[in-house]
Input
Amino acid sequence: MRDAYGASSLTSYVTYRQPVMRVGIGYDVHRLVGARKLILGGVEIPHELGLLGHSDADVLTHAICDAILGAAGLGDIGQHFPDTDPAYAGIDSLVLLDRVQALISADYAIQNVDSTVVAQRPKLAPYISRMRQRLAATLDISIHQINVKATTSEGLGFIGKEKAIAAQAIVCLVETR
Ligand SMILES: [Zn+2]
Output
């Protein structure tokens, strides 16, 4: 009997076994308000509005946390770090990302992360390199393994009207067990 890899015995199956890859997606939105810092990908960005949330409301980092947890089949960020827990009030979201990485690091290595921030303003291009550096350092990966893109929503909808910023992320994990 042959298995999916064309191997004809358990021994050759083990020999030819490919590394298991798993992908996960993350999506998050936070409301833009006055008198809050704007933090994206662990970088503080000068702007008259900031994101509202229990933590520092770093929407990009939250989407990446959810993508990693999703790829590992470990639920979502709200289950691990409830927004009702005072321990997480105002917390730097890179601390949460570091904890998420610790949760998966025994079983998986991060192959790559891709992400998109959707914000009407401010222009994010000048900050993207720094975001990639901070996220890569937190995840203990190379800057070449993490991509951050920024786009607007062409003035349309709640993002276009500058009521909120959203982020999406996708992560590929490789099993290391
Ligand atoms: Zn969030």
Observations:
- Residues 20-175 form a domain with the 60s Ribosomal Protein L30; Chain: A; fold (CATH 3.30.1330.50).
- The chain has one domain: 20-175.
- Residues 59-72 form the longest helix (14 residues).
- The CA atoms of residues 11 and 17 lie 10 Å apart.
